[in-house]
Amino acid sequence: MTRPTPDPRAEGDAPRIYPIRLYGDPVLRRKAKPLQATDTLTVPGFGPQTVRQVANTMLETMFEARGVGLAAPQVGLNARLFVAVEYEDDEEENEGQDTPLRSRVLREYVMLNPILKVIDKKKDRSYQEGCLSIPGIYEEGVPRARAVQVSYTDLDGTARTVEADDYLARVFQHEADHLDGVFFLDRLPPEVTEDHRGELLKMQRHAKRYLEDLAAAEKEAEKHRKENL
Predict the structure, then answer these.
(1) Which of 39, 89, 101, 116 has its CA 20 to 30 A from that of 221?
(2) CA diameter of the chain
(3) Residue 194 phi, psi (nearest 5)
(4) Helix (H) or strand (E) holding 27
(5) What is the DSSP string of 120-135?
(6) Residue by residue, what is the 3-state secondary structure of 132-160?
């Protein structure tokens, strides 16, 4: 998985993808705030957008990074929103192929203010997990409930409920964790994180540099805006 190059843009542009925030970025540790389907959102470095526009761009960002889910904090947005998909086959079987991921999507999920309820308390540790905000690090043994029920609001403001088991249940739990500032590594013994200390420190440096570049770009954009008033 590769991280999109930071691309702060002036207000009004229509981005194809968002930069994905890396481990060490403070937004990834904050508890996200509830939102409404009618809200106007502003991803840092981009102009105001509707929730639907943000969700669509998050999906494109996720496909670009070859992921199965993406939460709003991972694009710098402090909102209780995540997107996820079911694919028609195993992503690992298609590693390196040029087939667009979107062409293999069985179902897309856009969830506002999701609330998870465990419906099978037995823990599953058999899957390997990774994270678009911690690229290149994968670990098995993350304990997840085998089945969950998710209550959420869709893009039309309609309340919905869906049940999921096995891998999809894991995806929903992983993304919901992001909304509470939790990484999958947090659910493993501390020594696992320590094993990746060097890689994580490098990500923290990249995250700090990105935020500095973003702040400079936004300051410059504000200067130009004032000059053109």
Answers:
(1) 39
(2) 61
(3) -65, -35
(4) none
(5) EEEEE--SEE--TTST
(6) CCCCCCCEECCCEEEEEEEEEECCCCCEE
What is the token pair recorded at 29?
């540790």
Q: Is 175 a catalytic residue?
A: yes
pLDDT at 218: 86
CA dihedral 74, 76, 78, 81 (to 10 degrees): -40
**Mean pLDDT of all residues belonging to the chain:** 89
Are 139 and 128 a contacting pair, CB within 8 Å? yes
Give the angle 43-49-54 at the CA atoms, nearest 5°.
65
Instruction: Chunk the chain into consecutive blocks of 10 residues (it has 229) and report each block's average pLDDT, rounded to whole numbers.
Output: 35 70 98 98 94 97 95 98 88 54 87 96 92 97 97 97 96 98 97 97 97 91 79
Q: Find where tokens 């207000």 sit.
A: 11
Active-site choice (91, 95, 175, 199): 175
DSSP symbols for 39-85: -EE--TTS--EEHHHHHHHHHHHHHHTT-SEEEGGGGT--BSEEEEE
Tokens of 192: 């696992």
pLDDT tens figures, 155-209: 999 999 999 999 999 999 999 999 999 999 999 999 999 999 999 999 999 999 9
210 three-state secondary structure:
helix
